[in-house]
Design brief:
Length: about 280
């Protein structure tokens, strides 16, 4: 891992995300870039105009720039050499496009809740980043005081041959010396025998080359419930799972399990996009 992009709105969730990115940077040597997006209509001309004059809330652009610079240069983070920037546009688009164009290996963002109706109609920024980003996304919650996961739940909801993020999983397990708990959740509509599930998970663990891992089958009402409940039962500090990156009408018709887990989880969630078949 060489480059980490952190999306911030200066909220407690975002500050916790920056802390997590710094923790990972110190263990891997990856660079960290802190990005704040000022939301403006998706029009190049209007963005150029607003970039010179736009104020938002009680903050001015100058104030936001000062906050970014003070944060990356503060005594707590000065050793990382973190950089920062302000962009203008639709937040999730700016973050995902920046990550892809500038070849970032990981996006780290804070999780902020939205009302049920608002989420159904518009979708949260975090869920949109999860759906659109081509690199792994780490979602951090405000109550994450120190990111150092010693137990990671890997939700193998997708077929073993489709699983994404093998290098990312290997990296997190290695730098944090973590135990990885592979789990496949069976529901009334998505049933799989324990023998079949454990064989697939054991083969995957061997392929990745993990030294510390367990394999488990878990029954629940839904895949989301199963992953969240298993993570709670196992004392996990991170859930890592693939996402199909469904957007638009397909997202409404076939819900994104990873996005739902990220929204409901009280612990950090790491997602990685796989081909949408």
């Amino acid at each position: 891992m060489k480059k980490i992009l952190v999306s911030t709105d200066f909220s407690p969730h975002a500050l916790a995300a920056f802390d997590a990115a710094v923790s990972l940077s110190r263990r891997t040597g990856a660079s960290v870039h802190l990005c704040h997006v000022v939301e403006v209509p998706d029009s190049a001309g209007m963005q150029n105009s607003l970039s010179r004059h736009k104020t938002y809330g009680s903050e001015t652009l100058v104030s936001a720039d000062e906050r970014l610079r003070n944060l990356v240069k503060s005594e707590s983070y000065s050793d990382t050499g973190a950089t920062c920037s302000i962009d203008f546009g639709i937040p999730f688009k700016c973050v995902c496009e920046k990550a892809e164009k500038e070849s970032y290996d990981l996006i780290v963002t804070g999780s902020r809740g939205m009302g049920r109706l608002e989420t159904i109609v518009f979708g949260s920024t975090v869920q949109k980043i999860v759906s659109h980003a081509h690199c792994p996304v780490l979602i951090i919650h405000e109550n994450t005081t120190s990111f150092a996961p010693s137990h990671i739940v890997f939700g193998t909801c997708a077929p073993a041959l489709q699983v994404c993020g093998e290098e990312t999983l290997r990296l997190f397990a290695s730098v944090y010396n973590a135990m990885v708990h592979f789990v496949r959740v069976s529901t009334k509509t998505h049933f799989e025998t324990s023998r079949q599930s454990k064989a697939l998970m054991a083969a995957l663990a061997e392929t990745i080359g993990l030294q510390q891992y367990t394999v488990s089958c878990y029954n629940d009402e839904s895949i989301e419930d199963g992953l969240l409940h298993f993570a709670e039962d196992s004392g996990a500090e991170l859930i890592f799972m693939p996402t199909h990156g469904r957007t638009g009408l397909r997202h409404l018709l076939r819900k994104n399990v990873a996005g739902t887990v990220a929204k409901r989880s009280d612990i950090p969630v790491l997602t990685c996009r796989i081909a949408d078949g």
